[in-house]
UniProtKB/TrEMBL annotation:
<keyword id="KW-0067">ATP-binding</keyword>
<feature type="active site" description="Charge relay system">
    <location>
        <position position="85"/>
    </location>
</feature>
<dbReference type="GO" id="GO:0006412">
    <property type="term" value="P:translation"/>
</dbReference>
<feature type="region of interest" description="Disordered">
    <location>
        <begin position="139"/>
        <end position="165"/>
    </location>
</feature>
<dbReference type="GO" id="GO:0016740">
    <property type="term" value="F:transferase activity"/>
</dbReference>
<feature type="compositionally biased region" description="Polar residues">
    <location>
        <begin position="139"/>
        <end position="149"/>
    </location>
</feature>
<dbReference type="InterPro" id="IPR000120">
    <property type="entry name" value="Amidase"/>
</dbReference>
<feature type="active site" description="Acyl-ester intermediate">
    <location>
        <position position="184"/>
    </location>
</feature>
<comment type="similarity">
    <text>Belongs to the amidase family. GatA subfamily.</text>
</comment>
<dbReference type="GO" id="GO:0005524">
    <property type="term" value="F:ATP binding"/>
</dbReference>
<dbReference type="InterPro" id="IPR004412">
    <property type="entry name" value="GatA"/>
</dbReference>
<dbReference type="InterPro" id="IPR020556">
    <property type="entry name" value="Amidase_CS"/>
</dbReference>
<dbReference type="InterPro" id="IPR023631">
    <property type="entry name" value="Amidase_dom"/>
</dbReference>
<keyword id="KW-0436">Ligase</keyword>
<dbReference type="GO" id="GO:0050567">
    <property type="term" value="F:glutaminyl-tRNA synthase (glutamine-hydrolyzing) activity"/>
</dbReference>
<dbReference type="InterPro" id="IPR036928">
    <property type="entry name" value="AS_sf"/>
</dbReference>
<feature type="domain" description="Amidase">
    <location>
        <begin position="28"/>
        <end position="479"/>
    </location>
</feature>
């Protein structure tokens, strides 16, 4: 497997270059990743469904097009395989949101981003694991078992998109799609040493993304380099008439910005350190790696200053009112009447539709989903709506104003991605509040609708990756790609390559 091992360790951009030069076929590349999946899955459990036959058929179709010279207009990543978070619907491939209530459901249509992936000739390797309905920060709330962190299988990969991040980090896939409602792409990226991006809200169509909290959800890319995420961002981005929140504007020039960043010249780039993110509650190793990375930005010419966003400390509390309220509304559709699980009442209980719905939802939803539905239903109930949901939306407006004012002073904002590195399984599941507090650095971007990105910035004292987060103004995603690519290049010069090369990968030698 040595040749295949070297192949899967390439960046997605390098893989694409080899495909275009015909050094390797899309089928060979896809098969190499399927072989890694077979070897790694007993350890990692990143996938809920592997679509090997379909992926090879898609690869063959692309190779045929390439041989015929029929690839005009295809994006740079054409032919490179990808994994998809199981929160995004895929025609003919099971989509479960990691919930028993959707177990076995096969959608009759593709999400817009999947249509774009298929049109780009990118084989779909399968569907990745997540916290049920994307509700969690550790992928411990999946109905189908935990995903493990490739750096240390006793630790969580983050969540909710731990499956996508672990698949990329373990070389099972060069690219993946995730969804980010409060950090579900970025925090797993930080925990696994990968790059995760939440685009501007509305910059990527949500049509076909199973709704968790509709005003916060956003599909985005996960990869091993900043350039790879930029190239995938350009594949999936753009306006979609089927999504009423989609921005009627072209995709920002993120790939060009990433390539510009590789020159490592940040003269004139104004970087703001967020005063309200950091300090107490952040591990010493996380703070140390973050501060070292800030100095690297300065060494490349960036102008760094502290910026205050005074209402940011209130965003966590407001989020945990808005999000469960929207969860309560969105998950009301899973009632056993139309599709998915149906559980009839036992003998002796009236066989009514109301009872059937109650028994179905009791059996189909996990504890964390039920907790959030109950919280959200309470916040939306008569007599509490204005006091809770209405007040939280006012806080959200203040947070948006804070970001707008901050971006009048700087081009990008930065912070650690998470207060800690990946924690051990079971460490926080009995304390939901502790788990929720882990999202303190990522939630503000979703509340404000601004783009944000996490890149690895080193290893903490425990040998686990630390994430560095960039925020950019709405609709100016490219602003964060340039400094992120520059920082990544400077760090990789120190490390002698991508940070993942420091990770043990016994499954690659299986």
């Amino acid at each position: 497997m040595s040749n295949a091992t070297e192949l899967v360790k390439l960046s997605a951009a390098q893989m694409a270059e080899k495909i275009r030069s015909k050094e390797v076929s899309s089928r060979e590349l896809t098969q190499a990743h399927l072989d890694v999946i077979e070897a790694a899955e007993p350890t990692i459990n990143a996938f809920l469904h592997v679509s090997g036959e379909e992926a090879l058929a898609q690869a063959d179709a692309f190779d045929k097009k390439l041989a015929a010279g029929d690839t005009e207009g295809l994006p740079e990543l054409a032919g490179v395989p990808i994994a998809i978070k199981d929160m995004i619907v895929t025609k003919g491939i099971p989509t479960t949101a990691a919930s028993k209530i959707l177990e076995g459901w096969v959608p009759p249509y593709d999400a817009t981003v999947i249509e774009k992936i298929k049109a780009a000739g990118m084989p779909i390797l399968g569907k990745t694991n997540l916290d049920e309905f994307a509700q969690g920060s550790s992928t411990e709330h999946s109905a189908f078992g935990n995903t493990h962190n490739p750096w240390d299988a006793t630790r969580v990969p983050g969540g909710s998109g731990g499956g996508s991040a672990s698949a990329v980090g373990s070389y099972e896939a060069p690219l993946a799609l995730g969804t980010d409602t409060g950090g579900s792409i970025r925090q797993p990226g930080a925990f696994t040493g990968t790059v995760g991006v939440k685009p501007t809200y509305g910059g990527v169509s949500r049509y076909g993304a199973i709704a968790m909290a509709s005003s916060l959800d956003q599909i985005g890319p996960c990869a091993r380099t900043v350039l790879d995420t930029a190239l995938l961002h350009e594949v999936i981005g753009g306006n979609d008439r089927r999504d009423s929140t989609s921005i009627p504007a072209p995709v920002p020039p993120v790939a060009a910005a990433a390539r510009e960043g590789l020159k490592r010249d940040l003269k004139g780039v104004r970087v703001g350190l967020i005063k309200e993110i950091g300090g107490e509650g952040f591990e010493a190793g996380v703070a140390a790696r973050f501060n070292e990375a800030v100095k690297l930005l300065e060494s490349m010419g960036a102008e760094v200053k502290e910026v205050s966003l005074p209402h940011l400390p209130y965003s966590l509390g407001a989020y945990y009112i808005i999000m469960p309220s929207e969860v309560s509304s969105n998950l009301a559709r899973y009632d056993g009447m139309r599709y998915g699980l149906r559980v009839m009442p036992p003998a002796g209980v009236p066989q009514t539709s109301a009872n059937m719905m109650a028994y179905t939802r009791e059996a189909g939803f996990g504890d964390e989903v039920k907790r959030r539905i109950i919280l959200g239903t309470y916040a939306l109930s008569a007599g509490y709506y204005d006091a809770w949901y209405g007040s939280a939306q006012k806080v959200r407006t203040l947070v948006i104003d804070d970001f707008n004012k901050a971006f009048e002073q700087v081009d990008v904002l930065v912070s650690p991605t998470a207060p800690s590195t990946a924690f051990h399984f079971g460490e926080k599941t009995s304390d939901p509040l502790s788990m929720y507090l882990g999202d303190v650095a990522t939630i503000p971007a979703n509340m404000a609708g601004v783009p944000a990105m996490s890149i690895p910035c080193g290893l903490s004292d425990n040998g686990m990756p630390v994430g560095f987060q960039f925020f950019a103004p709405q609709r100016h995603d490219e602003a964060m790609y340039k400094p992120a690519a520059a920082l990544e290049a400077a760090l990789e010069e120190q490390w002698g390559g991508n940070i993942l090369t420091k990770m043990a990968t016994p499954w690659l030698n299986a």
